[in-house]
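Entry 14. Structure prediction run on the chain below.
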Amino acid sequence: TLHVPGTNNGRDEILRSDVSKALDEADRRDVFNDAWVEKLFETADSATGLVISFQADIYHPDTVKSYRECTTQNRVDCDGFKRIRDHIERKAALYKKPVLIIHGDTNAYCFHKPAEGLAINLWRLNAPGDYKLIDAVKITFDPGNTETPFAALPMLKPMTLPKVCDYSR
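Output returned:
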């Protein structure tokens, strides 16, 4: 698990906190998440696959404010998820084994490959559970299945999960 909160990785909608301190925390969180991702892939070397979970939807189109990564010099007018998204995708591509990201935060219930090209072994489950759809998902893993090593089966309302996240719901 990583600590990746919504609202642009804690960089937007800072309503009750000191803005400077909240942004300092976001910067620190980025550094610790980077180190944790490195350690995670290092220790998973002998595993047949890897699952990473966190809260935020790092692929939501509204969170991608620009293609610029947040830095200590540019802390607000930036994509707060670009750093972690790119880091996971780079590490997954080098790992060459199945990697599943599980997150919530938005209502676009879906299961698909979010990164075309770089990390073809990366899968994403935008889990259910908001007010529009309450469900639980059973994840199965078949390391011998190179096409779809992960399967996600809704438990309360059996259905095939969409391969495209529909954010319009």
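Strands lie at 50-53, 99-103, 110-112, 122-126, 137-141, 150-154.
Filed with the rest of this week's runs.
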